[in-house]
Structures are given as C-alpha cells and as structure tokens.
Specification:
Elements lengths: L1 H28 L5 H13 L2 E4 L4 E4 L12 H5 L6 E12 L2 E12 L2 E11 L4 E3 L3 E3 L3 E2 L6 E9 L2 E10 L1 E7 L8 E8 L3 H13 L8 E3 L2 E6 L12 H21 L6 H11 L1 H6 L7 H5 L2 H6 L3
Antiparallel strand pairs: 1-2, 3-4, 4-5, 5-8, 5-11, 6-7, 9-10, 9-12, 12-14, 13-14
Length: about 300
C-alpha cells in the first residue's frame, strides 16, 4: 500500500509538471490576452463605428456610428476596390414624401471579412456637380424618425453565415477570416417601410432595376426578396483582372488569419495573437464598410454640399 501511495504521488506530480510545461508552451505560442489589450481593441472597434456579437462571431455597425455624419454617394463605392473591398452593390432609388430616397444593399469581401450591408438614405437637395470630382446625388443618412425595420440572413452557397434584425439606417454584419466571392453570397432581405405607399413605391423601383414582381413578397408595408445577383453595373474601379488580383490577396490574408487563430477560443484570444504575430491584420479586422480612409478622400464633397 505504501509503495502504491508513493507511486500515486509521483504520478500526480508528474502530471502536474507535464501540465505546466504544456501550458507554458501553449502560452508562448498562443498568449493569453491582457485586459488592457482587449480594452484597446474594443476602443478601436467602437472608434471605427462597430460592435461585436460573440454569439455569431461578427462585427456590426452601431446606430450612432461616426459614418452617419457623412452620408453616402456613389464615389464611396468607387473607392472600395482600391481598399481591398470587392463587393456587389444594389442601389434602389425612389421618391417618397417629398424626398429622394436610396435604399442600398452590399455583399462581398471586405479584405479579411465576408459581409453585407443595408443602408437607408435620402435627400431633398439638388445633385452636386463638382468639376473633375463628382456629379450626382449626395444623400444624408436617415434620421431617427425615419429609421426602418431592417432584416437579412446572409447565405454562402446555400449555407447560412449569420443574420441580423434591427431598426436602423445601416444594418451590417462582417465575419472575420471567411473568404467569399460576391456571387457566392445571397442576402435574404426583409424591410418594413414607413407605410404601404412607400412600400409600393420601393417595389416599383426594384422592378425597374430588374427584379421580377414574382420574386418579391409584399405584406402591407413589409417587403421581402433575395439579393443574390446584382442588377447594377459594377464601379469603374472594378475589372475582372483587378478583382482577381485583389481577391487573391484577400484569400491569402484570410487563410493566414485562420492559421494564426486556429486554436483560439474567443475573439479576445484572436485579438491578442493577431496583434503579436500579424499586426497589419489588427486594424484590417475592422476594415469594413465605409472606412475613414474612404470618407477622408471625399471631404471636399461635404464642403460643397448644398445646404
């Protein structure tokens, strides 16, 4: 019995030593995040205009995001591809309540992220005409009184990636480390317009850009349809050759991201290891939607906007 007890103690000590050795090795490879490190990323994320959903493991835009102050124009989409954002866009323009409205949808690859967006905008101003820069409509983001109930489910090749529902002006979602071609994605969209008249006007605008009435479900002020194949021409900054080059780069970036974070269980752990092993990916994780880099290039539009 004494020998058995001694062996048991030695075995227990051996197990503890092995556990500590393995823990040290794993911590050196996959360091645990410090509270200050996680806090810094949360601040960066909030500064960028986003929150994080740990259940679906996605980033999404805040209601009070800074982007709300800078509206929307077509040039934002033109600036996307050079920023490694290859996305299909579907703008739906119509008139309602004395304003020109734009409800637009996006889906595709946002550098390290597969994602999608729904944006709600309007204007009662004349179009801009800035020689050598821009000629077209500049929209402001919908106010709190005009927020719409927006909903989508994003699928990739028939497999659900994530979903969101909220009363918003910019409903979005972005999943880091997932690579997709825009045509592989389908958004199942549902919107509650302000009233039935607005809904009918929106549906008419959908049919004008190529959607079949039979593809659209209407229930009072609700409208439901699928955005899979874009009916709108791509931005001038996109071509088959440049898309292929940028997407190859994005694919490799996503692969490297997955390799680095393979054993990470939480976003906090991913943040930690990304910052230490691939610091260029750190801010790339939130290079999504309308970034400051894109908006900054068009401050001149804000200065020339008609009051």
């Amino acid at each position: 019995m004494l020998v058995f007890a001694s062996l048991s103690v030695l075995l227990l000590v051996f197990i503890v030593l092995i556990y500590r050795m393995i823990s040290r090795i794993l911590c050196s490879i996959y360091p645990r995040p410090e509270k200050t490190e996680v806090k810094a990323f949360e601040q960066l994320l909030s500064y960028a205009g986003y929150n994080y959903d740990p259940v679906q493991d996605i980033f999404f835009s805040k209601l009070d995001a800074w982007q709300r102050e800078f509206g929307y124009c077509r040039l934002y989409d033109e600036a996307a591809a050079p920023a490694s954002i290859i996305i299909d866009a579907e703008p739906v323009e119509f008139e309602y309540g004395g304003k020109r409205w734009l409800i637009q949808f996006w889906k595709g690859q946002y550098y390290l992220n597969t994602g999608c967006e729904i944006g709600v905008y309007y204007t009662d101003q004349q179009d801009l005409n800035i020689p050598g820069l821009f000629a077209g409509t500049f929209y402001q983001c919908a106010s709190d009184d005009d927020l719409l109930e927006l909903s989508y489910v994003l699928f990739k090749k028939g497999r659900k990636l994530f979903e969101r529902t909220e009363r918003h002006w910019w409903l979005s979602g972005f999943k880091a480390g997932v690579f997709s071609e825009p045509e592989e994605l389908a958004m199942h969209i549902k919107i509650m317009l302000l009233d039935e008249k607005m809904c009918e006007t929106f549906v008419t605008a959908l049919t004008k850009i190529g959607y079949q009435r039979s593809q659209i479900k209407i229930d009072g002020a609700y409208v439901e349809f699928v955005f899979d194949k874009a009916h709108t021409p791509k931005p001038f900054t996109r071509s088959e050759k440049t898309d292929r080059m940028i997407q190859n780069y994005n694919r490799l970036a996503c692969k490297r991201y997955r390799q680095i974070t393979l054993r990470c269980r939480t976003m906090a752990e991913k943040i930690c290891i990304i910052r230490r092993k691939e610091p260029l990916f750190y801010e790339g994780m939130i290079r999504i939607g309308k970034t400051r880099r894109i908006i900054k290039a068009f401050y001149e539009l804000i200065e020339h906007r008609t009051d």
